[in-house]
Design a protein that fits this description.
Blueprint: E1 5-11, H1 17-30, E2 35-39, H2 45-55, H3 64-88, E3 92-96, H4 99-109, H5 114-124, E4 132-137, H6 140-158, H7 170-186, E5 191-195, H8 200-223
Parallel strand pairs: 1-3, 1-4, 2-3, 4-5
Helix pairs in contact: 1-8, 2-3, 3-5, 4-5, 4-7
Amino acid sequence: MPRGLFITLEGLDGSGKTTQINRLAAWLKKRGHRVLVTREPGGTETGERIRALVLDSRSKNLAPMAEMALMFASRAQTVAEVLLPALAAGQIVLCDRFTDSTEAYQGGGRELGSAVVLELHRQLCSGLQPGLTLLLLPSLEASLARARSRNERTANESGKDEGRFEAEQDAFYERVWQKYREIAAREPERVVLIEGDLSIDEVHEQIVEAVAEHLAVLTAAAKA
């Protein structure tokens, strides 16, 4: 491919994104692709500092607009420092979350709406869009239970606190869930929805099927 491919994984915390992005990276590398894995918020030194602030449960009374602005500050840095150079070098970039997360969590969960999120993305992220988005939506109950258990375990083992969002009420997550489904319905050519309480292997199989199909389309277009 003359230019790289940008793939994002989306879903609620506890949906299995981290496991699946690592398995997908290994699958791609075995087939000779150069792969870079990153995450949002985070992905750069500046982004990781923002991540620590935004996800820490001690960051109380953070205004929704301030929260969204911090997410985009991290993302704009990642776009400039990591994503655009890697894609220009022909790499496949796998990113754990991107602007769909902000639309779901701040646009939906915080009820800021989609328009402001999409406009900020246009202004701050060079209009960069994933070529393919893999949206993992197991049941809401299962996702929240896993996320809350994981964050509690991590806090106990390392003292690292990333549980601020998991402290939200279920109604918040219902709005996030519904916004994710709205995004998938709005952009079916980009977003592949993988839903249900599937096993790790079953989810991986659906992911590699979608990625293989996408790569085949890109290869055929390049030859045409």
